[in-house]
Amino acid sequence: LTSLPLCHPQLEGLCSFLQLSTCPEPFLVRFCSWLLALTPDLSYTSAAILAEQLFLRRVLSLTQPPSRHLMAALTSFCSKYSHPFCQVLVAVVLQEPGEGAEQTKLMCELVEECLEPHSVQLVLSQILEVPLSEKLLPVLQAVLGRQEVLPPELLDLLVLTLCQQAPAFATSLNYAKLVTAVLTAYQSQVS
To answer: Which whole number is the average pLDDT over 133-155?
Structure first.
């Protein structure tokens, strides 16, 4: 894939031909291992297309915790290509309406265990671009649990968003935990 000069439609066509979006999960793990071994690394665009083709449909359709095969494939792909993964998959999951309990748990686990610090900041900025909901509060909590140093402008936006959203979450325990976490982790920067 890296040595072939494939353009985006060709790569999408190849993914469709190989039926990557519906392939059995054990094959998905082997395919991701093969992708990670490629040299040179995939381009950003190729990794984004593959993240969408390999994982988006599977993650959006979760109604129970992901299988160990799917989790292994997600974490291995995410460990090397976390930025395109976040741009494609995390952004869509965060914007999906509804409860999405399994998707929320998965996003929390990926934030806590797999994403690079710059990708954790990307997830935070993606969350702050959409209206806050109960579904997003645990993901925000996971982001803060990483205790990454946030750029001042991102921290300011987080605090502003939490202040503006306070009336909507007046009875939310998750919101109260989140505000406490922000005040604890960033007490010197928050006035």
So the answer is: 89
